[in-house]
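Entry:
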Amino acid sequence: MPPDPGQGNYPPPGGGTPPPPPPPPGGYPPPTGGGYPPPPGGQQFVPPPGTPAAPLITAFGATVADPGKRILSALIDGLIISVVAFILRLVINSFIIDIFMWAIVLLVYVAVMTMQGKGQTVGQMALNLRTADKTTGANLDSGKAFARSGVMAALSIVCGIPLLIDVLSPLWDKEKETWHDKVANSCVVEVPQGA
């Protein structure tokens, strides 16, 4: 008796070979080499919202400072500069110098602090940050330090709003730099604990 065509692996009635199995759902070819095929259209992986971005690393291997820490350190330094400028205004009673006192103190304070010692202002010391040459990681030389603080001082003269925008610019800058960093080819980086 011939086998029942509905049972087992027998050729279908009428002879020939059975059709190949259907392709996997979704139109993807079967995976090869144990991996998964790339997503359609060349799309890249996008992390889910709320996933922290990987930190930026400088050419000399340091982590670029978080913009929030930079802003907080600038507030600390701004308070110090304001107190010193106020005291100097009381001592030096000149209307012309009074107008520029805050900018003058900022110019000298930031330049001197970032080119000496560990390259840190008091605000940066409090938050474990330092200013460095973007290429080498060394402290800024006097030319770069005064160029950097000079841009800050110039931006502070006209009502301070340009300086505020400059200080906030790491929030949207892809390299987390301020305008004064770009002028001096400098960056602000995290100081490792215990360094």
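The radius of gyration is 31 Å.
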